[in-house]
Task: structure prediction
Amino acid sequence: MGKRKSSKKPMVRKQNEPLSTTFKCLFCHHEKSVMAKIDRQAMFGHLSCKACGQKFSTPINNLSAAVDVYCDWVDACEELRVKQPPKKAKAAPRSRTPPPASALADDDDDDDIDHLASARRDKESKRKSARSAYDDDDEDDDVDDDRARKVARRAYDDDDDDDED
Result:
């Protein structure tokens, strides 16, 4: 005797998920705020952010989708970022009270630095005298003196850079 013929199960066709037309904004970082629109007649894709108002347009072809327009935007932003010069670190803030003109007029570099450092030390000593009697750390004095010297040296270097221009 032969086997029974088994009926084949019908093939289940997997549904393709439609590609997204909303994306995360590169500038304001809001989720699903960038809407992509494709104008097939004009052959242009347009992006616009609902949150920050950023807009972008790019030429497309017949096979382009909203994801392609978004990828072009990401690539364009990355290209601009690479072309920009690197940002400089913020300079230390200058002291609020400039040294007297007589101290800046002479050519001796050490006097200028000493003057700025001594002014800083005087200011720190006034602050320390106002502190409570419970704060008697000697290590703080050394750290403050070193910090004052560094600030004075930076201010002097910044003044030299300005004079060269």
About this structure: The two ends are 105 Å apart (CA to CA). The longest strand covers residues 34-39. The chain has two domains: 22-83, 101-164. DSSP finds four helices and four strands in the chain.
